[in-house]
UniProtKB/TrEMBL annotation:
InterPro entries with a match to the protein in the record: Nse2(Mms21), Znf_MIZ, Znf_RING/FYVE/PHD
GO cellular component assignments: nucleus; Smc5-Smc6 complex
Zinc-finger recorded as keyword: yes
Biological source species: Syphacia muris
Protein's recorded name: E3 SUMO-protein ligase NSE2
GO molecular function: SUMO ligase activity; zinc ion binding
Assigned keywords, A-Z: Metal-binding, Nucleus, Transferase, Ubl conjugation pathway, Zinc, Zinc-finger
């Protein structure tokens, strides 16, 4: 019974780690944090705490000579009370702590860049996708980069067809959200800001 219990705990830990890896890759691929991701990390943290308590209680119960059902409930309740009396451990050394720190850092970065003031904007006439002159300018509402309408439509369609990630093609662009025509707006003022 004890061996089966340890195998189940090991399997649970593997699944838990995979879930955290998925959350981390979601954070990295989106490039920004939203409330859903933050809630997901908090849920993982609560789940981890709950599993630690229950696993410790089950291990304690397995070490007794004749375990009873009531014993398990008592042990779990004692551990929950003990944990609430103690200071909650900071999980910064765990993967959850790492993800929470990453979220806080990304939030700080987003807040720091929100105070920037752009004094002037200059655009190149060349489209970053086709390397040809832009004829019908479309601006990405997220990162503010400008593309030619026909070129960006074709680029998005090709990415969908080949099932590849379709991000802003401008080098060093921080926008990790996939390009979508719903995020584009017509930008006739583009021609007023061209670099000669």
């Amino acid at each position: 019974m004890e061996l089966e219990f340890k195998d189940n705990v090991k399997n649970w830990n593997n699944q838990f780690s995979r879930g955290l890896t998925y959350v981390e890759s979601l954070i990295d691929s989106k490039g920004f944090i939203d409330s859903t991701i933050t809630k997901l990390i908090k849920d993982f943290e609560e789940l981890e705490q709950s599993m630690k308590i229950q696993t410790a209680a089950l291990e304690e119960l397995l070490s007794t000579s004749e375990p009873q059902k009531e014993d398990l409930e008592d042990i779990i309740n004692k551990r929950i009370r003990k944990q609430s009396k103690e200071k909650r451990k900071n999980s910064c050394d765990s993967k959850i702590g790492y993800l929470l720190k990453k979220v806080r850092d990304m939030d700080k970065d987003q807040q720091n860049t929100s105070g920037l003031v752009v004094e002037s904007v200059r655009y190149s006439r060349k489209d970053h996708i086709s390397k040809k002159d832009i004829e019908v300018p479309m601006r990405n509402t997220i990162c503010k980069h400008v593309y030619d309408k026909a070129t960006v439509e074709l680029y998005i369609e090709n990415c969908k067809r080949s099932r590849t990630l379709c991000q802003c093609p401008v080098p060093s662009c921080k926008n990790k959200k996939p390009l979508n025509m719903n995020d584009m707006e017509s930008y006739p003022d583009f021609f007023n800001y061209l670099v000669d």
